[in-house]
Amino acid sequence: MCMGYVNSVPRELDEAARIDGCGFFRIYWNIILPMLKPVMATIAILSFRQGWNEYIMPMVFTMTNPKLRPLTVGVNLLKNAGDGAAAWNIMFAGATIAIIPILIVFCCFSRFFMGGLTAGAVKG
After folding, report:
1. Whether the Cβ atoms of residue 43 and residue 116 lie closer than 8 Å to each other
2. Residues sharing a CB contact under 8 Å with residue 45, sequence separation 6 or more, in sequence order
3. Average pLDDT of 26-52?
4. Whole-model pTM above 0.70?
5. DSSP character for 62?
6. Backbone torsions φ then ψ of 42, nearest 5 degrees
7. N or C: which end of the chain has fewer CB within 10 A?
8. Cα angle 69-107-113, degrees, rounded to a multiple of 5
9. How many helices (H) and strands (E) in the chain?
């Protein structure tokens, strides 16, 4: 995703900055990096969501120490917290609370998200 976006950045910007006397690092810092904000925000949202929703690896690594369980594992374990039957209402309440950090991150980066997904995907 990032490579397609970087390849879509016009070379004329680099050339114009070099003519104006900018070096390599200044071109990167002042021109290329600000243009990468949409794709970096998109990668940040997708990476955070993937890490937040991870279930199997944290469950395996915290089998011996239940105090270290992350929220996603704890929410799934709430399902069996009832009187022998599955307590779906408790699990869904925990899942609703677990969604809040993802919503906060998405609200912070949403203005960049769609631009980062669509930019660099179409040639022409």
Report:
1. yes
2. 105, 106, 109, 113
3. 86
4. no
5. T
6. -65, -45
7. C
8. 105
9. 8, 0
Do residues 123 and 11 lie in contact, with contact meaning Cβ atoms separated by under 8 Å?
no
Instruction: Find where tokens 């070379």 sit.
Output: 11
Q: Examine the pLDDT at 25 and tell me if it is beyond 90.
A: yes
CA-CA-CA-CA torsion sign (122, 36, 6, 107): negative
For residue range 62-89, list pLDDT tens digits in order. Answer: 889 888 888 888 888 877 766 666 777 8
Q: Tell me the average pLDDT of the chain.
A: 81
Q: What distances in angstroms separate CA 59 from CA 74, 108, 118, one per listed residue?
A: 9, 29, 35
Among residues 49, 51, 69, the alpha carbon closest in space to that of 59 is found at 69
